[in-house]
Structure formats: structure tokens, C-alpha cells
Amino acid sequence: MAANKSLQNFSEAVSEALKEIAQETYAEIDVGLDKAMDYMSDKLAAASPVDSGLTRESWEGEGKYKNIRYINNTRVNENGIPVVNLLEYGKKGKPFLRKTVERETENIINIIKGEIEK
Fold first, then answer.
1. Are the C-beta atoms of residues 40 and 104 closer than 8 Å to each other?
2. Beta partners for 61?
3. Which long-range contacts does 7-11 make (Cβ < 8 Å, 24+ apart)?
4. What CA–CA distance (Å, rounded) separates 83 from 106?
């Protein structure tokens, strides 16, 4: 009976240690995602075509969920169409989103990894 109790205590101790490690890792990932979101928001703003400057100034990051971040451009035209969609996919568009994301993917990964590896 003592052996079973000992194994149960061991199992509970290991389980608790793994939970603590997971919580710490999630916190580090969140910090990395915040830094990556800020970095990418800046890169998207810098890559945005400049006419009035309103699209460039309308990038916003959101981090209300654990381990998830969103970057959005809030500017819409008079018809409620997101200006970024027109710039990226319109007939007279000057695609920049996909190019920026592709160019910065490795940097984003490294920012997040850097926080986890600290």
C-alpha cells in the first residue's frame, strides 16, 4: 500500500511541475507575441502606401486572448470597405501585405523563440 501512495505522490508532483512549466511557457509566449505584434504592426505601417497617411496610421494590435494576437487595419472607405483590401487586392492595388508578411516571418518567429529561450 505504501508503494502505491509513493507512486501517487510522485505522479502528482510531476504533474504539478509540468503545469508550472506550461504556465511559465505560456507567459513567455505571450510576451513574445506582444513583441512580435508590435514589430509586425510597425512593419505593416512602414510598408503601407502613403497618400493621406490614414491607412498607415490605422494599424492596431489586439491581444485579448491567451497566446493569440491579431493585427488589423481599421481604415474603411466611404462604402465601409477596408482600404487595406482595396490596396492589396483591387485592380489598381499595390500589394504589400503578403510581401511584408513573407519577408518578416522569420523575424517574427525569432522574436517569439527569443522570449521562450530566455
1. yes
2. 71
3. none
4. 27
Residue for grid cell 512580435: 36
* Amino acid of residue 22: A
Task: Read off the pLDDT of residues 79-104 as tens digits, 9 standing for 90 and up.
Answer: 999 999 999 998 888 889 999 999 99
Residue 1 predicted with pLDDT over 60: no
End-to-end, the C-alpha distance of the chain in Å comes to: 43
Beta strands in the chain (DSSP E): 59-65, 68-73
Residues 6+ apart with CB under 8 A from 99: 47
Q: For residues 96 and 87, is the Cβ–Cβ distance under 8 A?
A: yes
Cβ atoms < 10 Å from Cβ of 87: 20
Q: Which three cell numbers stand for residue 37?
A: 505584434
What pLDDT digit, counting tens, does each position of 36-57 carry? 999 999 999 999 988 778 999 9
